[in-house]
C-alpha cells in the first residue's frame, strides 16, 4: 500500500473487513432476492445455480447480513448521532448535490447523508431479518399463520426496495465523492480530503496531533 | 403436475409475455361436488392416491373421521367431516371433499415467482409444473383456500391437478370415476352449472331453502364447484371460505408494488448516472491539500512554540 505519510486513517482494518463482508452479503441478497420479486430478474437466480438454489441460499445470506450488521453497528453507531451541524448541512443539500461546496456548512466525521444511510440500514436490516424469518418456508413455513406470512412478505419486499434505494444512493455517493472508495478499501484519506469534505473532523484530528502519540489514528 | 403440450396455457406464472394461445378454444371444464349426495366413503381419496401414485405417510388416529388430518404434499384431496346442529336442533353431518378449487383467477399463480411453475390451461385447470417450482411457498400465501402444501422432502409445492393428464386425453378425473353415488360429476362448466341448477331445485323442494351453487365470483368463479344445502353459510362445511378472495396484501405485493419498485430502482440508478454526467465527480483540489498542510503546520508550530 502506497499510503502517503501525511494521510489520515478513516476506516480501520476491522471497519473495512466488516464493511466488505456486509457489502458482499448485501449484493448476494439483492441478486437472489430480486429474482423472486419480478420476472424480469428471475434470470439472476441462475447465478446461484437455479431458482431452487437461490431460494435455499437467500435466507442464509440474510442471517449472515444480520450478524455482519451487528458488527457494523457496534463499530459505527457513535459516529452517527445527529447534531446541529447536520441540520445546517441538510438545508444546504442543493449545494451539496451541485458540488457547490463553498456553500456547504462544515461537518464532522460523517455528514447527515451518511448518518441517514447508517440509520436506514439499522432499521431495515432487522426488519428484513424478522419478516424474512416469518416467510422462511423450510423452517418456519408451518410455524407461522398464512395471514401473518402475507403481511411479512409485503413488509419484506417493501423494506428490500427501500434498502436497495438506500444502497444505490450509498454506492453512487462513494463514486461521486472521489477518495471515498479508497477510504473504505485502503483505509486512508488525504488531509485535503478531510479538510474539504469533513472540516470539523479535520480540525479534530489536527488538534489531536498535539495530545496523542499516534496522531493519525481514529478519534 | 406435468407439462402437457396437448393443452395450451392461458396463464403462466411469473411471465410478462402472452403465453402461446393459438389453441385456446377449449371448453371450460368443471368438477361439480354435490355435497348433499356424498356419503363420506373416501373412494375419491383412494382413487386420487391410486391414479397419482401418492402414498402419504401413515399417521395417527386423531379422534375424527378425517384421515389423514390435513391436506399434504401427497394428500391432494381430503374428506372433511363437520357436525352441525341446525335451527331445529337436528344434527347434520356435513361432509366436504376438500382440495384445489381451480380458481379462474388463481391466487397461487399470481403469487408464484418462478416462470411457468404454475400454469392455467385453456380448459381452466390450474396445474403446478413441479420441475419449475423453487419451493418458496408464495403460492401458499396467494391461495384463498389454503390448499398448496410444500414437501419437506423435495421442497416443491403440490396440490390437486384435476387429473389434467386424464382430462387431456378425454377421461374424467380419478375421483369422479370412483365416486359410487355420483356426488362428483365432471364435464363442461356450463353443463355442470345446469346440472347443479336441477340438483338445487330438488334440494329446495325437499326443504333446503338455502341450497345453492358455490362458484365464488370473487376469484372469477372456480373450476371445482359445490352444491351446498346451506349455500348461505359455506363456512359450515369445515371452513369453506364465505367470500374467498386473493388477499389485498398479496394483490398489492404482486400488483402495483412490482412495477413501481422496478421503476424506482431504475430511476435511482439512471439519476445517479446523469448526475455524474452533468454535475460530475467531486474531487479534492490541490489547493485543499495545500491549505490542509498549511493548517497542520501552523497548528504544530503553535504547539511547539515555547510558552
Automatic annotation (TrEMBL), chain A:
Entry keyword annotation includes Cell inner membrane: no
Residue ranges of every copy of the Cytochrome b561 bacterial/Ni-hydrogenase domain listed in the record: 10-187
TM helices/strands, residue ranges: 20-40, 60-77, 116-139, 151-177
Pfam hit, one: Ni_hydr_CYTB
Cofactor: heme
InterPro entries in the record: Cyt_b561_bac/Ni-Hgenase, Di-haem_cyt_TM, FDH_cytochrome_b556_subunit, Formate_DH_gsu
Domain of life: Bacteria
Recorded topology in the membrane: Multi-pass membrane protein
Compartments where found: Cell membrane
Keywords tagged on the record: Cell membrane, Electron transport, Heme, Iron, Membrane, Metal-binding, Transmembrane, Transmembrane helix, Transport
Protein family according to the UniProt entry: Belongs to the formate dehydrogenase gamma subunit family.
Protein name, per record: Formate dehydrogenase subunit gamma
Species of provenance: Luteibacter jiangsuensis
Automatic annotation (TrEMBL), chain B:
UniProt main location, coarse: membrane
Subcellular location: Cell membrane
Pfam families noted in UniProt: Fer4_11, Fer4_4, Form-deh_trans
Top-level division of the source organism's lineage: Bacteria
InterPro entries: 4Fe4S_Fe-S-bd (IPR017896), 4Fe4S_Fe_S_CS (IPR017900), FDH_Electron_Transfer_Unit (IPR051555), Formate_DH_bsu_Proteobacteria (IPR006470), Formate_DH_C_sf (IPR038384), Formate_DH_Fe-S_su (IPR014603), Formate_DH_TM (IPR015246)
Region (Disordered) residue spans: 1-21
Cofactor(s), by name: [4Fe-4S] cluster
Domain 4Fe-4S ferredoxin-type stretches: 29-59, 91-123, 124-153
Coiled-coil segments on the chain, per record: none
Keywords recorded for this protein, A-Z: 4Fe-4S, Cell membrane, Electron transport, Iron, Iron-sulfur, Membrane, Metal-binding, Repeat, Transmembrane, Transport
Extent of Polar residues compositional bias: 1-18
Gene3D superfamilies in alphabetical order: 3.30.70.20, Single helix bin
Cofactor stoichiometry and binding remark: Binds 4 [4Fe-4S] clusters per subunit.
Name of the protein this chain belongs to: Formate dehydrogenase iron-sulfur subunit
Origin species: Luteibacter jiangsuensis
Amino acid at each position: 500500500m502506497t499510503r502517503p505519510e501525511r494521510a489520515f486513517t478513516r476506516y480501520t482494518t476491522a471497519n473495512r473487513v466488516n464493511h466488505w463482508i456486509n457489502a458482499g452479503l448485501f449484493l448476494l441478497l439483492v441478486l437472489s432476492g430480486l429474482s423472486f420479486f419480478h420476472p424480469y430478474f428471475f434470470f439472476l437466480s441462475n447465478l446461484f445455480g437455479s431458482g431452487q438454489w437461490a431460494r435455499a441460499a437467500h435466507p442464509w445470506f440474510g442471517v449472515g447480513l444480520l450478524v455482519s450488521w451487528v458488527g457494523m453497528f457496534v463499530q459505527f453507531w457513535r459516529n452517527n448521532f445527529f447534531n446541529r451541524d447536520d441540520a445546517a448541512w441538510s438545508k444546504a443539500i442543493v449545494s451539496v448535490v451541485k458540488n457547490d461546496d463553498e456553500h456547504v456548512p462544515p461537518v464532522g466525521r460523517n455528514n447527515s447523508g451518511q448518518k441517514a444511510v447508517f440509520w436506514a440500514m439499522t432499521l431495515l436490516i432487522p426488519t428484513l431479518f424478522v419478516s424474512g424469518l416469518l416467510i422462511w418456508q423450510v423452517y418456519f413455513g408451518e410455524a407461522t399463520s398464512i395471514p401473518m406470512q402475507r403481511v411479512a412478505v409485503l413488509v419484506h419486499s417493501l423494506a428490500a426496495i427501500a434498502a436497495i434505494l438506500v444502497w444505490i444512493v450509498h454506492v453512487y455517493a462513494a463514486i461521486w465523492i472521489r477518495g471515498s472508495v479508497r477510504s473504505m478499501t485502503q483505509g486512508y484519506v488525504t488531509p485535503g480530503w478531510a479538510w474539504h469534505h469533513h472540516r470539523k473532523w479535520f480540525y479534530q484530528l489536527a488538534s489531536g496531533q498535539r495530545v496523542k502519540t499516534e496522531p493519525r489514528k481514529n478519534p | 403436475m406435468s407439462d402437457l403440450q396437448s393443452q395450451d396455457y392461458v396463464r403462466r406464472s411469473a411471465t410478462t409475455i402472452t403465453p402461446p394461445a393459438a389453441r385456446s378454444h377449449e371448453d371450460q371444464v368443471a368438477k361439480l361436488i354435490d355435497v348433499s349426495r356424498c356419503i363420506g366413503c373416501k373412494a375419491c381419496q383412494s382413487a386420487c392416491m391410486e391414479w397419482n401414485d401418492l402414498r402419504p405417510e401413515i399417521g395417527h388416529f386423531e379422534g375424527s373421521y378425517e384421515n389423514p388430518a390435513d391436506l399434504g404434499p401427497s394428500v391432494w384431496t381430503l374428506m372433511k367431516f363437520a357436525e352441525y346442529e341446525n335451527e331445529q336442533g337436528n344434527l347434520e353431518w356435513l361432509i366436504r371433499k376438500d382440495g384445489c378449487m381451480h380458481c379462474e383467477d388463481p391466487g397461487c399463480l399470481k403469487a408464484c415467482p418462478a416462470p411457468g411453475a404454475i400454469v392455467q390451461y385453456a380448459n381452466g385447470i390450474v396445474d403446478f409444473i413441479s420441475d419449475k417450482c423453487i419451493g418458496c411457498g408464495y403460492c401458499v400465501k396467494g391461495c384463498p383456500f389454503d390448499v398448496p402444501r410444500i414437501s419437506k422432502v423435495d421442497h416443491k409445492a403440490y396440490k390437486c391437478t384435476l387429473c389434467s393428464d386424464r382430462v387431456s386425453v378425454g377421461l374424467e378425473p380419478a375421483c369422479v370415476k370412483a365416486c359410487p353415488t355420483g356426488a362428483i360429476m365432471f364435464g363442461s362448466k356450463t353443463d355442470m352449472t345446469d346440472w347443479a341448477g336441477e340438483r338445487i331445485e330438488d334440494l329446495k323442494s325437499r326443504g333446503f331453502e338455502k341450497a345453492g351453487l358455490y362458484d365464488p365470483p370473487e376469484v372469477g368463479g372456480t373450476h371445482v364447484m359445490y352444491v351446498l344445502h346451506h349455500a348461505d353459510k359455506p363456512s359450515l362445511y369445515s371452513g369453506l371460505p364465505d367470500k374467498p378472495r386473493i388477499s389485498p396484501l398479496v394483490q398489492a405485493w404482486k400488483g402495483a408494488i412490482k412495477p413501481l419498485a422496478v421503476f424506482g430502482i431504475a430511476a435511482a440508478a439512471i439519476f445517479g448516472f446523469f448526475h455524474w454526467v452533468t454535475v460530475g465527480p467531486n474531487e479534492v483540489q490541490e489547493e485543499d491539500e495545500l491549505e490542509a498542510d498549511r493548517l497542520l503546520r501552523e497548528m504544530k508550530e503553535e504547539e511547539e512554540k515555547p510558552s
